[in-house]
Amino acid sequence: MNTNSQAPIVIYQEADQQVEVRLDVEQNTVWLSQRQMAEVFDTSTDNISLHLKNIYFDAELDETATTEESSVVRQEGHRQVRRRVRHYNLDAIISVGYRVNSRRAVQFRQWATRVLREHLTQGWTLNRQRFEENARELEAAMALVRKTAGSPALDAASGRGLVDIVTRYAQTFLLLQRYDEGLLTEPHAQAGGRLPTLNEVRTALASLKAELIAKGEATDLFARERGDGLDALLGNLDQTIFGEPAYPSVEAKAAHLLYFVVKNHPFADGNKRSAAYLFVDFLYRNNRLLNAHGEVVVNDVGLAALTLLIAESDPANKETMVRLIMNMLASPEARVSGESV
């Protein structure tokens, strides 16, 4: 069972009693905690714990093979707290059930077997749906590239950058179209990432603005803030949900920073150039501008093409664009793994 609690939840009901049960169709089993087992077999958690201890002591079952820990969110008073909880599979549940109340064990086993069979039977249909969704997402991503390639704003240098993106990451797209995981997945990511403060962003952009004006490539309107859009954008990136960061990794923060500045237009002029500059600045501040080989993760031409790609994209394709950027920042191995720390 995954620690991200993605396994589907079904309800086991006996008389007036209901218990949430996690399914694991891949391993053809179900999982319950000691508290849930106590509810199913109408006994105390101390009794369940004692039976489990004896089962493993007598080597009736292998503890490692029948237990796993997962992260669950519990309501404790007015707070939602994430805890690590040990769960036990169907073999362990039935073994406990025979020691507590065999009738209830038989009922639960029959119910679990029926539910697992139903989900396995439906699996072929679900996998086909996922395959079709994957194909549509890949087609949408490539359509974005084709549309941008025909944009009048795309000069020769940006065109080369777009080709570079396609050639470097087409295989990544294909590898990440996992039939068993749905849509384009996020890569192995580096947790954390310090966002710049509003003053740090203003200072960085003021330096860029002065340089561009000196070259005759910008006017006083460049990077001039529109209302409190920039402050709100940075606050959105730094928000938390139930005490956990909404964007928990360097890759997630970088991708959303680039996307939001391009799409939300927090400045009167120069949103794309400002977005690209802040994207690079963020990576530099977090020691992620260079890869393990000392090469920039996205060169100037590639970044210009990527920024234009975001600008041309439909807002409905936001998640596709964000995942593309995250995969571009990840190592090749991380793009294949599709996991995060």
TrEMBL record:
- Entries under SUPFAM superfamilies matching the protein: Fic-like
**Coiled-coil parts of chain:** none
Tell me the InterPro entries matching this sequence.
Fido (IPR003812), Fido-like_dom_sf (IPR036597), Type_II_TA_Toxin (IPR053737), Virulence_RhuM-like (IPR011204)
Residue limits of the Fido domain?
179-327
Pfam families in the record: Fic (PF02661), Virulence_RhuM (PF13310)
* Domain of life from the UniProt record: Bacteria
Q: What is this protein called?
A: Fido domain-containing protein
Native source organism of the sequence: Halomonas alimentaria
Q: What is the lineage of its organism?
A: Bacteria, Pseudomonadati, Pseudomonadota, Gammaproteobacteria, Oceanospirillales
